[in-house]
Structures are given as structure tokens and as C-alpha cells.
Amino acid sequence: MDTNTIAIFILLGVFFGLLLAKVPITFSLGLSAVATALYLQVPLMAVAQQIAKGISSFSLITIPFFILAGEIMGQGGISTRLVNFSRVIVGRIRGGLAMVDVLACLFFGGLSGSSVADTTSIGSIMIPMMEKEGYDKDFAVCVTVASATQGVLVPPSHNLILFSLAAGGISISSLFLAGIVPGVLLGASVMVFSYFMAVKRKYPVSAKIPFKQKLYMLKDGILGLFTAVIIMGGIMSGICTATESAALATVYAFIITFFVYKDVPLSRMGAILRKSLNTIGMVMGLIAASAAFGWMIAMVQLPALVTNGLISITDNRILIFLLINLILLFLGCIMDMAPLILIATPILLPVVIQFGMDPIQFGIVLMLNLGIGLLTPPVGSTLFVGCSIGNISIEKVTKALFPFYGVMVAVLLVLTFVPGLSLMLPHMFS
Questions:
Q1: How many Å separate Cα 334 from the centre of its chain?
Q2: How confident is the model at residue 310 (pLDDT cuts 50, 70, 90)?
Q3: What is the CB neighbour count within 10 angstroms for residue 176?
Q4: pLDDT recorded at residue 1
Q5: Which of 18, 211, 216, 195 is nearest to 97 (CA)?
Q6: In 238-380, which residue ranges form alpha helices assigned H by DSSP?
Q7: Contacts 24+ apart (CB under 8 A), 10-14
Q8: For residue range 312-344, what is the model confidence (pLDDT) as tens digits?
Q9: How far apart are CA 117 and CA 415, in angstroms?
Q10: Percent helix / strand / coil, the chain, rounded to 5
Q11: Where does 47-93 show beta strands of DSSP type E?
């Protein structure tokens, strides 16, 4: 075996061995990079420099702002207002509460950027409400977790920011714009499927809301949604960068939550900051360690090895993209989303570029693949949260999710082979 092959075995073997030993993912990434560097006789100072370089990017400031804004809005009563706002728009359709669930998840995903936060905030309201109105509990949980996947696509998804960093600095603004149409397409697909299920199972139409109450619900919801308007309006108009719009959105979220909605006292800000800081610390540590890991991946020429391996199977572009989707769907079942983005991107991005896929399109395809992984055992965090809220077994929900998996995979294939859906808005505003 040549030196590079042995180094690849060391890099991946140490990494997966540490994971199996339940070592935290950040340390697994860092230690596997160090072990490979020692074998290749690369100075450890060079590894340390890559770790420092990984968190020295100015665009990284975007992540803390979005995490803080999402945390403020998540604890400030915005979820209830978004549910009411959605009820005004789609509540009177057959199976209207399912539609409300999907739409509220889309709106909240545009504020939090997290499918787990989406499920927690919207699901805690919608799942009991749907069950009370006569919906099957497993269906209510399935609609919620499937809809929450929109949060990894629509801006301000911090996972898209991680992809930007792992891909070598692709424009965050372009990625945000690229996620809008796919996110809406996913939500619309889940809504259509939910409607047919509602008709088949004879789920009820929601009660009519008085006109004055509708106006109040709309006004109350729009105030919260304006956070997303600040983010995307600033980016699309060119007035703000993604980082500047994140800072403005955080300030706006703070004012709306504590001085307009007033559902939580200002004294809660300390707890919000502590929780946000914990999340930010974990994300930054992961980024730092993955920078060293990604550097070693490039050094041992793993992307070229993967490319040659796939080409040895087939050189058909369609089959290559299908194989990559299958690989990502499998990996999403066994590993969490953020580390997978940082690990898989430097390996697979050169492959898809060689076969003609735009890096921005690949970012969206990657997000949806790994978003589906969040709904699959054994490590589907969004699935686990939904089952916990619904007080229902994972096995029962997983079985009920199969039709939803079919809908999501269909959307995934459309996004894989119709690049215009992802690239339309980035090209329009470039």
C-alpha cells in the first residue's frame, strides 16, 4: 500500500473509531487529523494553523447573529403568532391544520434556520391542536417533522453558512437566495400530499375566524415575519451583506420580543445569551476541527480517489448524481447534519463539479439529503424531538413517514436534475 492509502485509512479509521467510542465529534475530527499528520510527518503547528484559519473568516460572524436571533424569536412567543397568521391564510381548507403546520414551519424556519427548533416551537403547538381536532397523532407528528425540514433550506439556514465555509467561501447571499424556491417547493409538496390524506381520512375543516380577529392575527404575525424581510430584503437589494443583515435582524428580534410582544421578561435575556453561547461554542469548535480534517482530506487526495472510484462504476452523469444522493441519504441516517456538511463537502464537491453541477445547486441538494437524514433513525434528531412532543413511539412514526419520505425524495430528484430551481434567484440578483 502506498503512503496516501495508508494515510486515508488512518484518517478515516481513527475518526470512525473515536465516534464508535462515543468521543465527541469535534475531538474525533481533530484527533484523526493529528494522527494522520503524525504519520505523514506533517508539523503539528501546520495543523494548529489550519484550526485557527478555520475560524478566522469574517463571514463566520453571521452564525452567532443568526443563532441569537433565532433563540430570541423562539422564546418570545413568535411561534404562536405564526400559527395564527398561517390559520388566516390556509386554515379553511380541508385538513387546514395540516396546511397551517406546514406554512408555520416555513415561516419559523425562515427565522430560526433550524429544523429541530422548528419542530420544538411549532410542533409543541400544532401536534396537540391537530390531535384535539381529530387528526391521527402519527400523521400530526409526520407533517410537523417533514415540514420542519424546510428550515435547513430557507434562509437564514446556518447549515448553508457551514457549507459555504466548507466549499471554500461560496457566497452566503447566493446560497440563501438559492434555498428559497426549493424550500417553498418542499413545503408545497408536503401540503398537497397532506391535503389528499386529509380528504381520504376525512379530517375536518377548521372553524371560521371572525374578520376582526383575522386582521389582528395578520398584524401580529407580520411583525415577527418582518425579521425574515430584513434578512432577505437587505441581501436581495444589495443594501446589506449577509453578516450585516444578520446583525440588523438580531436587533429587530430583540426589540419585537421584549418591547412589543412582551411575552417574556427582559430578565430572560441572560438565559437566552447563555444558551446561544453554548450553541455558538459547539458550532465554532466543530468548524475549527473540521478545517484541519478537511485540510488532511485534500492532502491525502481523497476527493480524487472518490471521483475515480465513482467513474470506475459509471461515467454516466445521471447515475453519478443518483449514487451521490444515495451515499448522502445513507450517511444522513448515521451521522448528524453539521459534521456531515463539513466532512462530505470537500470530498464530493469536486466530483459534482467535474460532472457539471453548480456548487450552489450542490449545496441545496446536500441540505435536502441531510435534512431527510434528520428524520431517519438511528440519529434523526428532528424525528426524536417530534416523537417526544407527540408522546408517540419512533417506530410508529417512522412507519407513517414512508409516504412523506417518498414526497421528499421526489423533490430531491427534481432539485438534482433541474438546476434552474436552485439557481434562478442567485442569477437574477447577481
A1: 16
A2: confident
A3: 27
A4: 65
A5: 195
A6: 242-255, 269-299, 302-313, 317-334, 337-354, 359-373
A7: 10/35, 10/36, 10/39, 11/35, 11/36, 11/293, 11/296, 11/297, 11/300, 11/302
A8: 888 889 999 999 999 898 888 877 788 888 888
A9: 25
A10: 80, 0, 15
A11: none
Contacts of 5 (CB under 8 A, 6+ apart): none
Residue 314 has phi, psi (to 5 degrees) of: -165, 150
DSSP for 96-139, please give it: HHHHHHHHHHHHHHHHH--HHHHHHHHHHHHHHHHHHTT--HHH
End-to-end CA distance of the chain: 47
Give CA–CA dist 60/125, Å, rounded: 33
Distance of CA 373 to the CA centre of its chain: 11
pLDDT at residue 33 above 80? yes
Grid coordinates belonging to 127: 401536534
3-state DSSP of 210-278:
CHHHHHHHHHHHHHHHHHHHHHHHHHHHCCCCHHHHHHHHHHHHHHHHHHHHCCCCHHHHHHHHHHHHH
Note the maximum CA span of the chain.
Answer: 75
